[in-house]
Fold each of these.
Amino acid sequence: MGVKFMPWILFLHLLVILVSKCSYGDEARELAETENKLLEFALEGGEEVSTNMKDMHDEHKHAHVMDHIDPSVMVFFTLKDFKKGKRMPIHFPKRDPASSPKLWPKQQADSIPFSLNQLPYLLKLFSFSPNSPQAIAMQSTLSECESKPIKGEVKFCATSYESMLDFTHRIIGLKSDIQSFATLHQTKSSVTFQNYTILDILMEIPAPKMVACHTMPYPYIIFYCHSQESENRVYRVLLHGDNEDRVEAMVVCHLDTSQWSPTHVSFQLLGVTPGTSSVCHFFPSDHLIWLPKLQIHASSSL
């Protein structure tokens, strides 16, 4: 399942960057910056140099760009870097449940439209001005939910837990038992960005079919759920942060990225192109991975 964002995505999905605070502005900004920030790698001009010198220049340029990348996009890596002892910068957003949007019951969510052409009505309903950060975030979420999927992808924006389960069962199997996985923070900390070391690869989870659901900025919780017909690997890993944080993090590795947009933030961050490399990414704690309830194989190495 390709991540279009996040996509998060992965994923992974393009969202605008909010520039002021609002009732759910922090979440919107984090998701937007994670899933929509296009990283521009400006090539410096100059005379042609030997291949070795050019490689050194590219590495220096990449390191310089990395210094200016928004931390919220630092969730991507490749399989070659996925090993015990690997240390990498990772962003895990921390959201306060008391001030974050709530998950609505299906009956309540179904009672109002969820459609871009109904945005003026929705803004009045939630008392948001047309040019407010909330309005911009709502428009972006609705636009993304109504956009066409990439080749081989099935997508759905769930407005309730029940609708998310219905979609998941349609993908994995109406009669299949399903289970969800999410990142777990073992320690409480306000630090959202730091270097983490992979202490252990706790398990590799078979993923013949998979649905990933990412939270989207909206007055109530919206899950952007999608699945793609391509080979994926799902892992749970134990991370140790420089700040002594410990995280049991969920990881999805996409082995086929040939259908992804060339402008996907992961390609620009990792310096690869569609179809030439796997792309793995960590999941925030409020994003879900749905899988068939299959036997789980413990693993401490790839």
Note: The mean pLDDT is 80.
Amino acid sequence: MSEQSSTRTTTSPPHPPQRLALLHAIVRGLFSIATTILLYLISLGPIPQHVGFVMDGNRRYARGLGKEVSEGHGEGFAALKRTLEICLRLRIRAVSVYAFAIDNFNRSENEVSTLMRLAKDRLAELCQHGALLEEYGVQIKFVGQTSLFPEDVQQALREMEEMTKDHKNGVLNICAPYASRDEITTAIRYTVKDNNSNTEQITSTQIFDRLGTSQSVLHVDSGLFKRPEESGNLDILVRTSNVKRLSDFMMWQASEDTQLHFVNTFWPEFGLSDMIPILLGWQQKQWVKQLGWD
């Protein structure tokens, strides 16, 4: 007499790595939902038109973790993408970042070449078809003495600008190689040249309108700004790594109404948790101004 054995199919619980991956997916999903809700609530209040960032602390961040400086710069580009997406989701129309100072050419040849390579590769990713700048209809503009870059880098920058030239919803100003004093003197030079045969007095407005950052903002659809006449001015200027100085960045654009924030976070770690208090503080200032309490 033979016994017929029957087999039963049982579902075994996920292995620890699978459970961990599932947990990570759930946490990411919840964080994404919370972020969307939080940004929506902030968008119900006044929104700044123009925000600037001094992206400081890449090297100190890397050294503190025992990493190569190049890794710090690489993670800094990731922070730029992360922060830019927050700004674009809130419909902040102009974002200006201090990417490379003219004086940075004094750094080691290896670090400068690494920055050039990262700029060509990582910034190009933002401009590609279907990428962040196309999704939000934002131009990329390079402000500064770009002729100081190697020819292959200059060509890459021109190609990026060409790819996004028809976008009118906003602008990302990459200030590199940049110095505010150089931007101002260049604007004065062009203003004097254009007014060489004009007997009218040169005004500060004429010079301001010829600043590289101001000219790029003029390409944005002015109807998208609540205060088009002030779109070239900075509403908020953020500097990371707790260094409290402007370092020759947008000194003219930082008007008396610009809100300055010096945060402790190194730039590669900068994100939503740093940005939210800054935006809420700016909104509070606008509400106080509207109520006439300032």
Note: The radius of gyration is 24 Å.
Amino acid sequence: MFAATGGNGTERRHRRTGGMMCFRQQGSPAWLFCLLLALCPGRYRGLSVRFPSEEPVYVIPGESLVLEARLEQGGGEQVATVTWEREAEGRSPGKVKVAELPGVAPDPRVSTEQQGATLRLSGFRPEDRGVYTLTVTSRAGAKSSAARTVREYEAIHHVSVGINVSHAVLQCGEAWGSEPRFSWLHEAGAVPPETGRVSPDGTRLHLAAPPCGHYTCIVSNKLGRSSATYSAEPCGRKGSGTAVGVAFLVILLICGGFLGFLLWRRHRKLGNRAERLQEPYEP
């Protein structure tokens, strides 16, 4: 009885163990691959390239353009070719090859660094503007691309200041300058807290009191600065008018009092004279 029970138990354990062994033999490669992929995603992600920012790059004519990308190689991928191309922004007349690695750049102003992930172009010209695309191809044929827009650095133009009366806000704007920075002045000095508060981007001045005097918005960048001024009623006009009115009233009261005093004195003299004339004559 005991032996039979032990045999059945041994058989059940053998079946369970055999089942687990069968599962391990059949499912372990996929399970292990998924586990390693979860623990080390970068290793099996393959070849990829990207720029650290998607914001446009502004370049002053005559200076150097530098585009830096980040190249990531996973799963043992090896880079075969690196290609840089330029395309006019907003139009698609076709892409122009700027550089290729291995190979020689068609423009002597162009050079590459960091295994082709960095492009350097000296003596930037207006025709160098456009969308630059970096394409990396692995030996296995896999491709990864990233693009960055390059624009010419423009000076500040046509600064203007307007007022939103209902919200007591002064709004500053400019036409098309690159990377504009805004600042405000009130009566040729910094704006104090009791006068107003400048918005985080600098384009608006939220007034804390009724506008008075001159409000100047200054917009600047690497190529210079320009400004515009909004003029309101001069500060202190109401206060000075009140002071003048009070002073005039005081002077008027003084003059009226002095004139009344003169009239009273004259009336008293005339009264005394009349009394002397009415006195009886005594021989």
Note: The CA atoms of residues 2 and 76 lie 59 Å apart.
Amino acid sequence: MSDQDAVALNSEVKPKSMIRAKLWSDEIENLYRFQTAGYRDEVEYKHVKQVDLVERWPESGFVKKLQRKDNTFYYYNKLRECDDKEVHKVKIYAY
């Protein structure tokens, strides 16, 4: 069981700290997608939506589709969507 799985099992999922992204990466791209859909990260999404897997693009590994808390869906492209001017808005949580 990974650390993320252990955190996901805890009903009170609370991050210990948060920093802001400075440079774009694949990880930052996926966090951007979770945060535009209204979640902190994959851990919170899996906990709230009670899902084991997040649908991803096989080519890039980026998140493909997320369900918001109001049950509408966000669909994302295969390629990068987080522009350089948006990177500083992405929050990276530590548990």
Note: The CA atoms of residues 34 and 41 lie 5 Å apart.
